[in-house]
Amino acid sequence: MVEGRLIEGVLRGEEAAIARSITMVEERLPGARALLAGLATHTGKALRVGLTGAPGAGKSTLLAALLSALRRAGKRVAVLAVDPSSPKTGGALLGDRVRMAMHAGDSGVFVRSMAGRAALGALAPAAGEAVDVLDAAGFDVVFLESVGAGQADHDIALECDVTLVLVAPGSGDGIQALKSGILEIADLWVVTKGDRPEAAGLKAELLASLSLAADARAIEERVVTVAALGGQGVPALLAKIEQAGAVARAPGSLEPRQLLRLRRRLLAAAAELCAERLPPDAPQLAELATRIKSGDLTVIGAARALLSGGNA
Ligand SMILES: Nc1nc2c(ncn2[C@@H]2O[C@H](COP(=O)(O)OP(=O)(O)OP(=O)(O)O)[C@@H](O)[C@H]2O)c(=O)[nH]1
Ligand SMILES: [Mg+2]
User: What is the DSSP letter of 42?
Assistant: First the structure.
C-alpha cells in the first residue's frame, strides 16, 4: 500500500516522503486520512510555535536567527509558512526561500510553504495536519509562520503550543496599525528590530496597551525585544518559547493545547464526513427540504435528525 511506504519514509525523516505527505494533506488527496491515521501515534513530541506579524515585521529574519540557534543546539527544525492570500507559487514567500537557502542541504531543517489550495476555513486544520507529519518525522520544533490575515492567524494559533506576535518599530502608527484581535492571540509579544531607536517607545506603548487588560508584571514577562539581524535577544526569546511551550503542554495544565486542538480536529473531521455523506444533491436533503418548506419540519429539527442518523 502506497500510504504504508509513505508512513515508513516519514518516520525515517526522508525529505521526499515528508514533502509528498504534506501535499496529500494540503490537497486532501485520497489516502491522506489513512496516512494521518498511521502517523498519529508518532505525533505529540514536537514543540509547535506559531509566528505571525504584519508584512515586513521581521518574521523571516527572526526565523532564520531562531533556526540557527536551534541547529546549534542540535535540534531538528521545520518551518511551514502559511499564506492564505497568495496562490501556491506566490511571490511573498519566495524571498523566504532564498533566505532559508542558507540551510539548504541540512537535513535537520525543512522549509515549506502552504498556500491557498485548501478552502480558507480548512487551511488552519490542514496546516495543523501538515505539522503532524513534521512532528512524526522527528522535528523537535515546528514553526507555523502565518502572513498576517486576521482570522486565519487566529485559527493557526489554535494549532500551536506557543504563538508569537511580532511588532516592528517604524511602521508609522505603532500598535494602532495592527490588525484588530491580533495581539490577543499571542503567548509572547516580540518587538523586532530592537536596534532601532523607536523600539523602546513601541515596547512601552505595547505594555501600556496590554496592561489595561491584565496584570502588568505578568505581561512584562511575556514581551521580548529582539534585534534578529545582529542576534541580540534571540537566546532569551528561545528560552521563553521553551518555557511557554512546557507550560502549554504540561499534562496538568488547565487548558492543554493538545486536547483543545484535538477537539477542534474532531469537529472539523465530523463536518467533513457529514459533507461527504450528504452532497448537495443527496435525495435525503431534497426530501427534508420539501418537508421544511411544507412546515412539517424546522431546519434545526431536520439537522438534528440528520446528525442522529434517524428519520425525521
Ligand atoms: N534594523 C533592523 N532591521 C531588521 C531587523 N530584522 C529585520 N529587519 C529588516 O526589516 C525588513 C523586513 O524583514 P523580514 O524579515 O523580511 O520581514 P517579514 O516579516 O518576513 O516580511 P514579509 O515576508 O514581507 O512579510 C528587512 O529589510 C530586514 O532587513 C533587525 O533586527 N534590525
Ligand atoms: Mg518574510
Answer: G
What does each of the 312 residues of the chain score in pLDDT, given as a tens digit?
678 899 999 999 999 999 999 999 988 888 999 999 999 999 999 999 999 988 889 999 999 999 999 999 999 999 999 876 655 444 455 456 555 666 777 889 999 988 755 555 567 778 999 999 999 999 999 999 987 666 778 788 889 999 999 999 986 666 766 666 777 788 999 999 999 999 999 999 989 888 776 677 888 899 999 999 999 999 999 999 999 999 888 877 767 777 888 888 888 888 888 888 888 898 989 999 999 999 999 999 999 988 887 555
- Cell 523537535 identifies what position? 140
Ligand at minimal distance from the CA of 65 is 1
* Paired residues of 110 in beta bridges: 78
DSSP 3-state assignment of 75? coil
Global pTM value: 0.86
Which are the contacts of 233, defined by CB distance < 8 A and separation ≥ 6? 194, 224, 225, 226, 227
- Residues near ligand 1 (Cβ within 6 A): 53, 55-61, 92, 147, 192-193, 195-196, 227-229
Q: What residues pack around ion ligand 2 (CB closer than 5 A)?
A: 59-60, 96
Q: Specify the domain boundaries for CATH 3.40.50.300 within the chain.
A: 43-257
Q: Classify 43-257 by CATH class.
A: alpha beta
Ligand that lies nearest to the alpha carbon of residue 55, given by its number in the listed order: 1
